Amino acid sequence: MLFTPEMCGLLDRDRKRATPNVVAEADNPVLAGARDAAREYGIWIDLGSLAVLRDDGQWANRGFVIDASGAIAARYDKIHMFDVDLATGETWRESAAYTAGEQVVHVRTPLGRLGMAICYDVRFPALFEEFGRAACDAIRIPAAFTVPTGKAHWHLLQRARAVEASAWVIAAAQTGHHEDGRDTYGHSLVIDPWGEVVLDMDAERGLGFAMVDPVRTGEVRAQLPSLANKREIPKSAT
Q: Is 231 exposed, middle or buried (0-12, 13-18, 19+ CB in 10 A)?
């Protein structure tokens, strides 16, 4: 199964320049090409996300899982918008261009049940609690992390999400300097359910390989059954 980063078809913070290239699913050349490739080579593809024009005219940051026949098995619109002012002076307002999704999505794949998240979603544990309740075997978290936030939190957050869900995490990430002026952190990761980093591609571009062993998932859940032991937290007294 092939995994790609967030915004793998278009990464441009200039909305005016990007607008002609943000089209409906049916007209998106990257989505069409990925579906053709999946069909031709008989592999599943997780498109981290594409900028997609919704039916209501709004934009979505949308991820896709494509099966080996080229069919779209699942879609997920990023729920949490990256609206921040960093100490470095960088300002980001994802909500100025994109409309937030409203549904938690997980889908059956060759890796087992795969939970779908995108980039900034990684900072919100409630989403990953839902993946735990659904007994997801793996979670995909493609990203275009900034360099300052990546250095501070990328590995920490990805490992934490793997541990708390007792699931594999696959986090394909944009890396390097981009034509729109931004720099992204890279470090595409595969992490096992114990929180061990199986693959770290550093800041390099290219294709990485990792074995995702379902036996390991069962071993971790038997050794540390946190999902089975989970209880609802009572409300605090006032």
A: exposed
What phi-psi label fits residue 10: left (phi over 0), alpha (psi between -120 and 50 degrees) or beta?
beta
pTM of the model as a whole: 0.91
pLDDT digit string, tens, across residues 174-200: 999 998 888 999 999 999 999 999 999
The CATH number linked to 211 is 3.60.110.10
In a domain, 151, yes or no: yes
Number of structural domains in the chain: 1
Longest dimension (CA), the chain: 61
Find out whether 204 and 175 touch, Cβ atoms under 8 Å: yes
Please check whether residue 182 lies inside any domain of the structure.
yes
On whether residue 234 sits in a domain, the answer given is no
Asked if residue 52 belongs to a domain, the reply is yes
Domain containing 114 equals 2-229
Cβ density class 83-96: b for 16+ within 10 Å, e for less? eeeeeeeeebebee
